[in-house]
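2.7 Reproducibility. Because tokenized structures are sensitive to small changes in the input, we list the exact sequence used for Endoribonuclease YbeY, including any N-terminal residues retained from the expression construct. No trimming or masking was applied before prediction.
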Amino acid sequence: MNILINNEVGDLALTEDEVTEFIKHCLHEEDAPEESEVSVSFVDENQIQELNRDYRGIDKPTDVLSFECDGSIIEDGAEFCVLGDIIVCPSVCTRQSGDFGNSPDQEMRLMLCHGVLHLLGYDHIELDEAHEMEAREHEILSSWYGYEIPWVEHDDHIDELNASVEGNFVHHSLKESPIPILSAFKFAFQGVAHGIATQRNFKIHIPAAIIAIILGLLLGLDATSIAIIVVCVFVVLAFELVNTAVESIVDLVSPKWAELAKYAKDCAAGAVLLSAIMSIIVGLLLYVPAILKLFGN
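Resulting structure tokens (single pass, no recycling of outputs):
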């Protein structure tokens, strides 16, 4: 995916890398083609007011505008599907963020998500369209933050704030709320599934763990010994997931080689190695006497 950023206002609530990663997240959540291209411009209030007046007939600044495009472009020998342009006014986003209980960076992400969905055909002129768009924003933002963002309460204050927005757009508050139990389990299982699908060592550990448990049962180990084996198995698998998480975070914040990034990955891998060595030692202490006893008889 190709994300083009044009910053005409200076400092933003998000870095350009953070903007790029978040837009890619939105596009991935919507199953957009990998060859998609989106242009994002950050402008001042005069510029966005002019665009708002010329294209929407509303002569005042706004937070975000989207201009959908249906075409393709060839860059560096690769063909990209141009989805369109997102225009964001950071000063408006920052000013209104407090009204909705959001931080400036949360407000920026909400506007970027809103803009991306417009490029992909969503709208909020009709009420049923607004509900669909709101639901997708809720799902995409929740998956990004890792917690279930609260639905907006339609009180008089929120309705008054939203009254200035054309259509039926409902503004999300992105304050963290307690994660519903089912959602928490869903996110956790998604992490395990990701580990199984992407990590070679995880695919080795699981059959090895099954063999270890079955062997313990065949050797007639007592319940305590089997429990110790199970604990060792899950410790190794848990450390493998932690290692995967560390690698993902390091790759995100340090895409280029850096010595500290290397140390972080090495330490995480070392933790997996130590847990595996511990499991082998425990296995030898439990299995060897049982095997000797079996053959001794």
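The beta strands are 2-7, 36-42, 64-75, 78-88.
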